[in-house]
Design brief:
Layout (H helix, E strand, L loop, with lengths): L1 H9 L20 H29 L3 H27 L10 H15 L5 H31 L3 H35 L2
The protein binds fe (iii) ion (3 copies) and zinc ion.
């Protein structure tokens, strides 16, 4: 089309570099919007985890692991409520938007379960999958807390930090469960 050709010529100096992805029409234009998008993403992820964690617990054998997963499920439910408070604090309706990363991490966890015999080996696999999830959450809440601080949402920042600490705690507990029993026994099963 002729008009497109003209446009191309005019914009030539600002032509994006090869590989640059074109922004969607609703793309975030500022940090507030990026913050909101991040909240929607992790809100979806936490909700998905209230279904994924019980599945992991059902497939676990170690009493310590089952306890760690169940107690983190309770925390996850609290984290959802905390996120709803954060939305309220910034004057937005709590909305979930699919988190592609969490969907993938949960899928990967299911794959690990399928690929392991029930017992210590599956337990070790579940811990590895759960820790990948916790690390994603730690990264996410670290960023969101920082965004909230930068944007001056002090109360929201404090709530996000509370959740960040719970995610770090869950990760640490999983390491302890693995180190204390499961990994050694799983190695003995070789
Ligand atoms: Fe969480
Ligand atoms: Zn995500
Ligand atoms: Fe990601
Ligand atoms: Fe978590």
């Amino acid at each position: 089309m002729k008009s497109t050709d003209n446009k191309k010529e005019i914009n030539q100096s600002q032509e994006p570099k090869k590989g640059t992805i074109k922004a969607k029409s609703n793309a975030a234009s500022g940090l507030t919007e990026l913050f909101e998008d991040g909240l929607k993403d992790i809100y979806w992820a936490e909700k998905a985890l209230t279904k994924a964690i019980p599945l992991m617990a059902k497939n676990a054998t170690s009493a310590d692991l089952i306890e760690a997963l169940n107690s983190h499920l309770t925390e996850t439910e609290d984290q959802i409520i905390r996120l709803e408070k954060v939305f309220e604090l910034i004057g937005k309706k709590a909305t979930a938007k699919k988190c592609d990363a969490m969907e993938g991490l949960i899928e990967e966890g299911k794959g690990i379960i399928e690929e392991t015999e029930i017992g210590v080996v599956r337990d070790a696999g579940i811990i590895s999958a759960a820790q990948k999830i916790e690390h994603y959450e730690i990264a996410t809440y670290g960023t969101l807390r920082q965004f909230a601080e930068t944007l001056g949402f002090e109360e929201a920042a404090a709530l996000l930090e509370e959740t960040l600490d719970e995610e770090k705690g869950a990760d640490k507990k999983l390491t302890e469960v693995a180190v204390n029993a499961i990994n050694v026994e799983a190695a003995e099963a070789d």
